Amino acid sequence: MVAQLEWARTSRRPYADTTNQFGIRSNVGETIALFGPSGAGKTTVAHLLLRFDEPTRGAIFIDDVPLRELDADAWRSQLAYVPQAPHLFHASIADNLFFARPAATPAEMERAARDAHLHAWGMTLPERYNTVIGEDAARLSGGQAQRLALARAFLKDAPILILDEPTSNVDPELEAQLRDAVTRLMCGRTTLLIAHRLAALYRADNIVVIQNGRVVETGNHQMLLQRGGVYQKLALGAGMAHA
Amino acid sequence: MRDFLRSTKLAAPYKWWILLAVLLGAGTIGAGIGLMATAAYLISAAALGPLHCRLELGDRRRAFLWTRARRLALFGTSCAHTVSLRLLAALRVWFYNAFEPLAPARVQQYHSGDLLTRAVADIDALQDFYVRVLAPPLVAIVVALGMGLFLWQFDPRLAPVLLLAWLVAGAGVPAVVLRLAREPAQKSSAQRAAMHTQLVDAIQGSPDIAAFGQCENGLAHAHATSNAYASAQMRLAQINAVQAGISQLLPNLTLLALLGIGITAVNAEEFSGVYLATIALATVAAFEAVTPLPQAAQSFEHALAAARRLFEIVDAAPLVQAPPPAKAFAQADSTHAPLLEIRDLKFAYAPHEPNALDGISLCVRAGQKLAIVGPSGAGKSTLVNLLLRFWEYHDGDTLLNGKSLQAYAQADVRAQFGVITQRTYLFNATVRANLQLAQPQAKEREIIAATQRAQIYAKIETLPQGFDTRIGERGAALSGGERQRLGVARALLRATPILILDEPTANLDAPTERALLQEIFQAMQGHTLLLITHRLVALEAMDEIIVMNQGRITERGTQAELLTQRGLFARMWELQNAPFVE
Prior knowledge:
- The structure holds two protein chains of two kinds.
- In chain A, 33% of the residues lie in helices and 24% in strands.
- Chain A is built from nine helices and twelve strands.
- Chain A has helices spanning 42-49, 72-76, 93-98, 106-115, 119-124, 142-156, 172-186, 221-227, 230-237; strands spanning 4-11, 22-27, 31-35, 57-62, 65-66, 79-82, 91-92, 132-133, 160-164, 190-195, 206-211, 214-219.
- In chain A, strands 6-9-10-3-11-12 form a six-stranded mixed beta sheet, with helices on both faces. A four-stranded antiparallel beta sheet of chain A has the order 2-1-4-5, with no helix packed on it. Chain A has a two-stranded antiparallel sheet with strand order 7-8.
- Chain A is globular.
- Residues 1-5, 8-19 and 239-243 of chain A have low confidence and may be disordered.
- By secondary structure, chain B is of the alpha/beta class.
- Helices cover 62% and strands 10% of the residues of chain B.
- Chain B is built from 18 helices and ten strands.
- In chain B, the strands form two sheets. A six-stranded mixed beta sheet of chain B has the order 6-7-8-3-9-10, with helices on both faces. Chain B has a four-stranded antiparallel beta sheet with strand order 2-1-4-5, with helices on one face.
- In chain B, strand 9 and strand 10 form a beta hairpin.
- In chain B, helix 2 (15-48) packs antiparallel against helix 8 and helix 15 (480-494) runs parallel beside helix 16 (510-523).
- Residues 325-334 of chain B have low confidence and may be disordered.
- Classes of the chains: A alpha/beta, B alpha/beta.
């Protein structure tokens, strides 16, 4: 079981003239949130953690072992990733879900769909879970795709969760359902939450505020509010300082 | 058959060109036959008796035939190309003219990839129809008649043998091959499509595949589809190989048969043996006219399928009826009339679908800022589609300057509305070119003023070549907020009476979203504004907010009024601002 995640002075150079530096720590079961404007480097961190990319300098440590020394597949088996724009394969919904854990039973699959608030919608489709989705089949809204990705994560049931919060593509009612699903998914898992909106950050154990690829502030919501830095400015702007 | 006749008709203006191409093609092969025949005659004559004068005469004739053959071949090829290129141009114009009025309501049914295939590949295939399908059989018939007459002179039995071989090689073999190849060909193209879909899927979904540790399964799947495609291809290759073999064998068998008949005839002293080699070599040369026929048969199927797909689009009726000829645009002729008025508008996308709009009435005066909010599927985008005349409505009406939208020419309507959507489309060109798209005659001063108002001027100044910097495909060099600001600048340049903002900030994060909206409102001061959104941000600046749900207007008022009403708007507001983790 993974105890700690640490980015020790990890740096990437997406542009020639900037060096991005990170130092983040997380303990088991904690939720750590990355927050910052678009293009700050949040998604890059997720990709490094997933080993889609290797840091140019520095290293990520898992239980004091450098990530690059772990077998990529074995490491990924410990992760569930909910990307901002999940890819839906040209296949049935069931296949799209089983993809997360091919050995799962249909009952487990349905349970994951229920947990992600996907079941009710699935039942309205002509062939239920066997309905083929993808490019030209039934068009899914952003919210449905997102719930499908959450259902995948429920089904995979991995100890570590990387959650790239969807941007404002769904209306508030749908968003409430998503929030509920996400909250339950995070329960008991070490979570890296990539947040695009302040509302997502309330209960994060540790919030890491990033700007231009650098960590500018860390702490929980209350601490950061009192500190009077970037976070407070953003929170005031969003009318959330009362919280 | 109907499709075949219709395709043929398309080429009618070029019938003389096609006829010329056929005659030249036949002439080329005829000259080739003549060349071989003369050569054979000369050699036979020389072998059978020393006749110098004949050789000399023959040499001159050979030289003449040789140059004629080359010239005819040259003219023939150039003529065929002329026809096909002219046809290609004509077909493209024909297709575009039919297609243009269909955009965009009808076009939505088709994939952009599919449309591109039709516009490019299908028209190319149809062009083949005239040069590779229509011409070769005609050439073959002309050559067959000539050869028949030629052989008849020597022995009446020779002609039917040749014609029989001709039928087998030119019609029989292609027909059998077509029949055999039809199923594997369909299978192969279906397998190829499946393979492409799967590959695109796997490439686009590669992060998901890797994250869920499904790389090996994905590879195995790719192997399986690739193997299925390969085996279908293999079957096709086998059929084609057998056909190629038969095509090689047939001229030789024919030659044997003709020689058999010829030898008996010569023995019976029906004609001189000098001509025997002539007959043999002329026959071999004549088969050149049959060689392209199996290929033509395959092209025929291919071209006909392409023609069918093109006709399908050309025959689709435009949804928005051709507007009456452009009238001078009514410049607010009755000053009392509101700029835009919608009266009890109802609309469904298809006859049996529920109404997407179910009795909408609203009114926008010049300079007003109006927001239309509501959950996804409330009908907000449908309203925009109708305003821009992308779809036709039949129930209720929309008045612009007191006159029904249906009475305006389409281009006049679109000139009234500027639109900024969540995906501002930027071309892979310079900043300036992207701006001038809105107003080609815009002066430098105006461009700078617009970009300043849209708060993007400072950013443009920092780009390596300022306004002349290329911004990459879809503006990849800019951030989401910057792209939208460039869109605002473009809308400002175009200076339309009404600006529609259709979810302009849907892809941006919250701080950027609020800032951008406030900037847009600032820049658009004095303009008439229609904001379509499901996010309740910066709405305090609106003169009126219309709340829509399931195709109806359920509430209206200012933000403060709506919040006290405790209806749908207030509920959406609470949900949106509720904490994330409870």
